[in-house]
Amino acid sequence: MSNLLAGMRILLLEDEFLIAMDVEQLCRDHGAANVVTLRDLEELERHTSLAGTDAAILDVMLGGASTLSFAHKLMQREIPFIFASGYTDLDEIFEAFPNITVVSKPYAGDDLVEALAAAAGRLPASGSV
Known about the structure:
Elements: E1 9-13, H1 17-29, E2 34-38, H2 41-46, E3 55-58, E4 61-62, E5 65-66, H3 68-76, E6 81-85, H4 90-96, E7 102-104, H5 109-119
Parallel strand pairs: 1-2, 1-3, 3-6, 6-7
Antiparallel strand pairs: 4-5
């Protein structure tokens, strides 16, 4: 395994339990120091502090609710992030977030890790996967 995410503290927004577990382990396998997984907007609202977050992986929809307003908050705070989603209306995302990588589900683990590393400035950016 690579250490592309070495020492990073990652916020993961993912409502599908098994996918969340896989992504969390994948991040740890690639060196992440900590992965905080939030599965719905209520958890997200209670998670008030983004202090110490190095990067984030966002599913576009959590339990049927959009995470796009949270994505704007990350942009304002200059926290790098990617979208990892099975959401099919990607035009809205590309229009609102033209410089943010979207990794479509199902995805290969390496694609996800490389996209996150690129967003965090650890690899050259590659666009959508």
